[in-house]
Automatic annotation (TrEMBL):
GO terms for cellular component: cytoplasm; plasma membrane. GO terms for biological process: SRP-dependent cotranslational protein targeting to membrane. Residues 133-334 form the SRP54-type proteins GTP-binding domain. It is a peripheral membrane protein. Pfam families: SRP54 (PF00448), SRP54_N (PF02881). SMART domains: AAA, SRP54, SRP54_N. GO terms for molecular function: GTP binding; GTPase activity; signal recognition particle binding. Residues 41-119 form the Signal recognition particle SRP54 helical bundle domain. The gene is ftsY. Residues 132-339 form the AAA+ ATPase domain. GTP binds at residues 140-147, 222-226, 286-289. The keyword Isomerase does not apply. This is Signal recognition particle receptor FtsY.
Amino acid sequence: MAFFSKLRERLTRSSSKIGEGLDGIVAEAPAAAPAAVEAPAATGLVGRLFGRAPSAVEEPRRALDDEMLEELEDMLVQADLGVDTALRVTANIAEGRMGRRVSATELKELLAAEIARIMAPVARPLPLYPRKPQVVLVVGVNGAGKTTTIGKLASQFRAAGKSVVIAAGDTFRAAAVEQLQVWGQRAGVPVMVAPQGSDPASLAYDAMVRAEADGADLLMIDTAGRLQNRQDLMEELAKIVRVIRKKDPEAPHNTLLVLDATTGQNALNQVETFRKLADVSGLVMTKLDGTARGGVLVALADRFGLPIHAIGVGEQIDDLDAFDAGDFARALVGLEDARA
Ligand SMILES: Nc1nc2c(ncn2[C@@H]2O[C@H](COP(=O)(O)OP(=O)(O)OP(=O)(O)O)[C@@H](O)[C@H]2O)c(=O)[nH]1
Ligand SMILES: [Mg+2]
């Protein structure tokens, strides 16, 4: 699968972190019980269990004990899964397997399965409704990737035959408007703008009028990330919601919170904060390329259960992909694609 290799290649740093961590844990068998080569009879069985032909050179193995589980737990915490999630994942891996001699590959398979199980319920694309225009409000802290994500999403919806209007609701910075206009051109989508410093809510209202008049399928509203304080941001978002509800009491139909994967555990605080400010309906995680912190997605899924609609894996227009739980889990632990 082409996307998997891209994700794998771009998640290299996370995967090498967890993958190497697991390799290290198995290799670091305590001196009293050195990692040994499995007896040939058992090897055949384990090989069959994991669907592989027995090979001449066997991987080192280590017996699962409390010490090893503790190392596993620590490693997962380091990899941003968070303490609660790391504890639970480790306990699930341990269940019924204490004393069993496992290889790093087996451990990776077990971990990938646990992570995929946590992630599967949240891997859901942005739901599309028959409602026209479907209003998508995009929120997130300064620099998270809101504007870029809107550009990428607009391009994908256009490619899928949907008509899209973008509202440049970040009226604080002139550069923000220009940036969105560039994305609008790339995606072939009209961008509604307002003079710098003007009221984003009135722009949002105008954009609703325009999107309705155009019969647009989707209206995506960008918002400012940098405001003086939380109160400002809350008031601004509330006002935007209030005015668009004058046109459609059910809008916004989606409130996307854009999170930057490189912020690691801080993403959890951002979700807490934005859930108080807005009715967050789903997440987009950006910058999963080139970060060692992809593990935070597992913590987010486990803690909040909010749908992850898409992930950003680069700065280009096509660097946004649907979130696939299995692909992500395997890439994160440094395994090859099962279907390759
Ligand atoms: N590598 C990488 N960079 C990204 C990704 N998404 C966004 N960026 C970059 O992150 C930076 C900030 O992105 P913006 O889209 O401007 O973020 P924003 O949330 O709109 O920021 P403000 O408007 O300042 O609040 C830009 O340089 C983007 O190119 C991604 O998935 N991967
Ligand atoms: Mg922006």
